[in-house]
Amino acid sequence: MKRNLTIILLLLLVLAEMKAQVLPFRLSKGAGTFRLGIVAGDKSRWLDECELEKTGDRTYIIKDALLGIGKIRLMICPLTDTKGLLVEVSGSRLPENLSLCWAFGACNEDEALSGQGAAISPEACRDNVFSDEENAFTVYYGASMALRVTQGIAPVGSELRLSDARRQTSPLELYHSGKKTDAPVISSLYSWNTKEKCYFCFYKQNAGADYNYFMLPHLFEKESKR
Q1: Does residue 10 form part of some domain?
Q2: Which domain holds residue 41?
């Protein structure tokens, strides 16, 4: 009886955390914040500033003037083998030459600090150190004797760079803000083929969780069925 009650309580906690998840997406225990935006020509907008419709616990439909009559669909899956998120981005009837611009940062053990405001908290970015390789990156943060690490994977072809979290008025402003800052984030501009799905993954690496981009579609298919 006690075992059954424990299982039910754990399931309720997982469901509550998933239902509470909103844009921008924040990993648990201050492990980082992911903010995603769209770019059309010289105009850009964060998805959390667009018209959002949540359909179920894991799916968002995004509409905006920059998308014309089109829609973007986000599906979010928690990872089974580690702490983290896997995001699938797809669309329908979208304009040509649409790009995705995104940022990741605010890795900080102080969850209250990392969750401040509706954007990536600049104050939570102070001690973040980034190492990137093509479309993947690692964030190091925390005390030197208890260093913590978050891994990130973006679509192949993403142009990663360091940017200034204090300049988030628009995705393009952040992307072009430069790396001379006390609040670094990693950002990217990705020329999206809107007829294809693309994926983002942010996670804690362990023996059972060490991913590359080519693995993400299959991983998403598996996780989305749980």
Answers
A1: no
A2: 26-225
